[in-house]
Amino acid sequence: MTVADPPFEGVGPRSLHRVTARLNSPLTSYYLVFGATVALTCIGLVMVLSSSSVESIASGSSPFTEFWRQAMFAAIGVPAMFVAMRVPVRMWQVLGWPLLLASFLLQMLTFVPGIGIGTNGNRGWIMIAGFTLQPAEVGKFALIVWGATVLVRKRPLMDQPLHALIPLVPGAGVLLMLILGGKDLGTAMVVMAIMAGLLFVAGAPMRIFAFASVGLLLGIVVMASTENRRARIGTWLEGCSASNPNVLDSCFQSVHGQWAMASGGWWGVGLGASREKWGLLPEAHNDFIFAIVGEELGLVGTLLVIGLLMTLCLGLARIVLRTDDLFVKIATSGVLIWVVTHSVINIGGVVGLLPIVGMPLPLVSSGGTALITMLAALGMVLGFARRESGAAEALAARAGLVQRSLAVLPVRGEARNR
């Protein structure tokens, strides 16, 4: 008598082969970025509603005030993402200089009385037609598009430090000075990180980064020397504990953010059941929305958000590694650095690993300009992913499969006759 073959023999290798084939598909990058973007935006809308409802009621407004505002910005950002997805690569290169000049103009408006608005010691917002905008978010997107454009043209001369630095560093320097004029340290750090990342991906000589690191360190020290920033950094270095005399002052936001996450446990106290959002945690729907996620959805919720951010970064990195177009490579790297720096600074500040500098969590925190510009930038990258080698053919094949599937379905009248 022979022993029968195991019923599932070979299933493991075949399944592994199918998974590997899907990961190697030219559409994998597109689906990773698109799926993570949609999921994070939806989670953000839900958490903005949950974290802002109590304060909205306390101020005499509807509990849906912040939610409807964020939903309106999402309704603008999502079409902007799909429009950006259709813009050809050549057109982005044409738009580089106009976008940069427009970002300069918008940033200058922050210093105009009656238009510029200051918040928490920073002057980085403008009020136009009743809407508050943060020009620095537009500046980040503009710097990426313009920087990739000029570095592509400078590629044959990138081995010469002077050509590698000009005009990128002067252009980014103007934007940086305008941002620093409003005392926005966090945004300035992101702009410097994007500029350094663009140069690195473009192939700038490594000795530039050795000198730049020293200047960067000195610059951060100078920028952090203001009284507000110095107090926050000093408090972070001392640690926020019960013995710290600043526990009810500079440590207040950090302590309540950590209490929110600690009280959430594994599964959270339940969606909408946060206690810290009842006027205890400042900026609960904005810079500290991750703490409310931890309190209401627990460790599982925070890991879900972090996992989606990592998925988004994986999709962006995959585009960088697979493309042969230098502009696509540099621009996508800029967006990747943008997402990473915002995520690390925000989450690091909430959990106490980094000083609090007021940085929103990408696609999740409340903030219209940040949401619209991030969706537009990701739309640009999704357009790059759709033009990846073999992606267009795969999309056309899948569209044809859907049409053929619908063609065999009976129409309503035929179904009744049957």
The value of Rg in angstroms is 24 Å
Oligomer: single chain
The stretches of 5 or more residues where confidence is low (pLDDT under 50) are: 1-11
- Major β-sheet strand ordering: 1-2-3
Number of domains: 1
Instruction: Please state the overall shape, judged from the principal axes of the Cα atoms.
Output: globular
Question: Approximately what portion of the residues adopt beta-strand conformation?
Answer: under 5%
What's the number of extended β-strand segments? 3
Helix content: 55-70%
Report the major sheet. Answer: 3 strands, antiparallel
- Backbone structural class: mainly alpha
SSE run: HHHHEEEHHHHHHHHHHHH
Tally the helices. 16
Distance between the termini: 53 Å
Mean pLDDT reading: 83
